[in-house]
TrEMBL record:
It comes from Adineta steineri. This is Uncharacterized protein. It comes from the Eukaryota.
Length: 344
């Protein structure tokens, strides 16, 4: 259909068609193409794409195939430049199917998606782990929870969305080690409740972290053992000392905040939720007292989420800080339900 403008293709079986038998297609009106395939390897995909003659503006591709070449940025760059010079939007999702030791080893450069080609298009490389599956994404960068400028080469983020708790640590840790064959990780999101032991074991593997975001913490009686593994406490603490931005979405006790302050001593920004049924003044007072007592010289910004935040609350908190001389040189303000406090 020469007038076709939007096309969604799904190729889920090697019996769907023989790529080599397809003739070149003149689709001059085609501007939006989405492709999902669980069978095509990169060479077959490239051959197919080169058959399409169009003025494509948007390309979204998703693959489930054991072919490491889908993560070769230089091949993607050449393919897009030579065939789709007018392309405005691009996204790639590559999913490794299942878990095992029989995957090909990636031996290319770390994170090739940081060249000027990708920077100019505001595209970044992200990874998500969900149960046994690892998803690799190339997609447009979107504003994150920390409001700080970070160079493009240090935006790679690992999100752990869901893992079976009774299968930690081996499977998850081996998945993270595999991810580290592709890229350094600078930002870690853990989208589930996690024990402090598990958190330390993960961070032991990630020496380049800048930010850490977790849903919630829980504690075991001992932090010296993790399954059958001795805890690498020293290296975990050394890596955590590089973390500048920390977010805890659900705060159960003040111990959660105390742990994070101790674990990430060079933290500059802390984003937390007010403890449910706890007075905001008491909550803030405890945090500021901890900061003053322990001389956290790097921490200079705090964000507290509270569903009842309003302008009157800001006035009351300012009055408390002034009366109790908790800080002298500071600013406090509200954006919707977030209370921001910054000091020198």
């Amino acid at each position: 259909t020469p007038s076709l403008r939007h096309l969604n293709l799904s190729h889920s079986s090697k019996y769907d068609s023989d790529i080599e038998d397809i003739s070149p297609m003149n689709l001059n009106e085609l501007i939006h193409l989405s492709i999902f395939s669980s069978d095509l390897d990169f060479d077959e995909f490239q051959f197919f794409l080169e058959l399409i003659h169009s003025n494509l503006q948007i390309l979204h591709v998703s693959f489930l195939k054991r072919d490491i070449r889908f993560l070769h940025a230089h091949r993607w760059q050449r393919l897009l430049l030579e065939n789709f010079s007018q392309l405005e939007k691009f996204s790639l999702c590559y999913r490794e199917p299942g878990y095992g030791d029989n995957y090909p080893i990636y031996d290319g450069e770390l994170n090739q998606f940081v060249s000027p080609f990708w920077i100019q298009r505001n595209l970044i490389f992200d990874i998500e782990i969900w149960e046994y599956r690892i998803y690799y994404f190339v997609r447009p960068f979107k504003k994150r929870w920390y409001d700080y400028s970070i160079e493009h080469s240090k935006l790679a983020q690992l999100t752990i969305k869901y893992v079976y708790c009774n299968e930690l640590p081996d499977i998850l840790l081996n998945q993270i080690k595999r991810v580290l064959n592709f890229t350094q990780i600078y930002h870690l999101n853990i989208d589930q409740k996690i024990s402090t032991e598990s958190l330390m074991q993960i961070i032991h593997l990630l020496p380049d972290l800048i930010s850490l975001k977790i849903i919630a913490l829980f504690y075991y009686e001992s932090i010296l053992q993790f399954g059958d593994h001795e805890f690498p406490t020293t290296s975990a603490l050394e890596n955590a000392s590089n973390i500048k931005y920390v977010c805890l979405e659900i705060t159960f006790t003040m111990d959660d905040i105390s742990f994070l302050m101790s674990f990430c001593p060079h933290m500059e920004y802390l984003n937390v939720e007010c403890i449910e049924n706890m007075n905001i003044q008491s909550f803030l007072r405890e945090i500021l007292n901890k900061i003053n007592q322990n001389h956290h010289k790097y921490l200079h910004a705090l964000c507290i989420y509270i569903a009842t935040a309003d302008d009157q609350m800001i006035k009351q908190l300012k009055q408390m800080i002034d009366d109790e001389k908790l800080f002298l040189d500071y600013t406090i303000y509200r954006q919707l339900y977030n209370i921001y406090l910054k000091w020198k």
